[in-house]
Amino acid sequence: xxxxxxxxxxxxxxxxxxxxxxxxxxxxxxxxxxxxxxxxxxxxxxxxxxxxxxxxxxxxxxxxxxxxxxxxxxxxxxxxxxxxxxxxxxxxxxxxxxxxxxxxxxxxxxxxxxxxxxxxxxxxxxxxxxxxxxxxxxxxx
Length: 141
Hints:
- The protein has helices at residues 30-33, 38-49, 58-75, 84-97, 108-116, 120-140.
- By secondary structure, it is an all-alpha fold.
- It has one domain (29-140).
- Helix 3 packs antiparallel against helix 6 (120-140) and helix 5 runs antiparallel to helix 6 (120-140).
């Protein structure tokens, strides 16, 4: 599978917003989400941009991601076999990214991988863990 990056690495708020760009690569969030059902694509979108579009809105972005995961599970979840294309795309992209040094959320890519592979319970755990961490940090301030 060949991935053609959509991002010219320039911040174009309409065509290539910076908060949806990859890490040190020309891959964008849409390169993965276009292969997913709507609700899962939105969950990935909110995880991808969490803290990048607006650092103060990271908690809200993760709560939205969790909402979309739950919505998908309630309405259309058909099991992990429904994710073959999205997983293949993500694995290819992840091999290019190989980024696990995200200072805001080291498990961001692990969480996205869980969604595109159909392991939604893992994504729930990762998102809830980060939400709890953010709420604890916010309460401590």
